[in-house]
Specification:
The structure is a single chain. The chain is α+β, with helices and mostly antiparallel strands. It is built from eight helices and 16 strands. Helices cover 20% and strands 32% of the residues. The protein is globular. The strands form three sheets. Strands 1-2-3-4-5-8-9 form a seven-stranded mixed sheet. The protein has a single domain, classed as Ribonuclease Z/Hydroxyacylglutathione hydrolase-like (Metallo-beta-lactamase, Chain A), CATH 3.60.15.10. It starts with 5 loop residues before the first strand and ends in a 5-residue tail after the last strand. The protein binds zinc ion (ZN).
Amino acid sequence: MVMLTKTAHPPFTLYSVETGRFKLDGGAMFGVVPKTLWSRHIESDDKNRINMAMRCLLIKSEATGRTYLIDNGSGHKFDEKFSSIYGFDYAHSTLEGSLKQQGFDAAGITDVIFSHLHFDHCGGTTRLNEEGNLEHVFPNARYWVVESHWETASRPNAREKSSFFPENLGPISDSGRLNLIKPGHVYEDGLTNMVMNGHTIGQQLPVVHLNGKRLIFVADLLPTHVHIPLPWIMGYDMYPATTLEEKEEFLAGCIDGKTYLFFEHDADCEVGTVEKDGKNYRIGKKLTLSDI
Ligand SMILES: [Zn+2]
């Protein structure tokens, strides 16, 4: 069983929720950066794939009683071919198992915040029941998506289409519980978002304020700590030049000594700080939630 972490900063208690591992092509993960460089920092398998986490963040608020889950992994609604391409590993962890281990169940989640709707971020919203029909995993949750992202996910271009699955988006749309929001949304005092448009239009990064510190769920802006240097941008990004500008502004705000990044996809680093060395940014401390 994977070690799950937590940290308490009233009114918030934060919990890591691991939902399984999978693998993505290392070349696609590092865009124009050659393998001779990225392979010094991250291992790849015989098919050139690197190991990826699908690590979600659960936030319990004593102030409002709300229980937020940010993203929910890929879910399990795949055929064998798809599973073998992406090397899904649910022996490592599952959404249901990790929620239980942290003392929660899916029915108690009041809010699911989606960074964005690519399949590895929202597939856990539904599962197949014994009859093979889709059912909601979070029957009582409100869903939160940035409005501009919902528009792009509803009418994707040919390149991004393969990341948005109708069986993921349909039930969210039909639930009657979908809330479309703007950049700078305030979920409650101390829990806000910032919005990025390079990876996909309208990706939100939730920000939790923790008594003078802040933790940012960096989702696919910085999928791993190895992506901190400015030009290390995923080939998957829709608008890489926009990502470059967004990273520059974002990272400049992260070297204040009180900002911590929560990595969704980094298999080895859960939380990290950022350092600047001359003009270059790099990982500072590698931490877990419990260290904040
Ligand atoms: Zn994505």
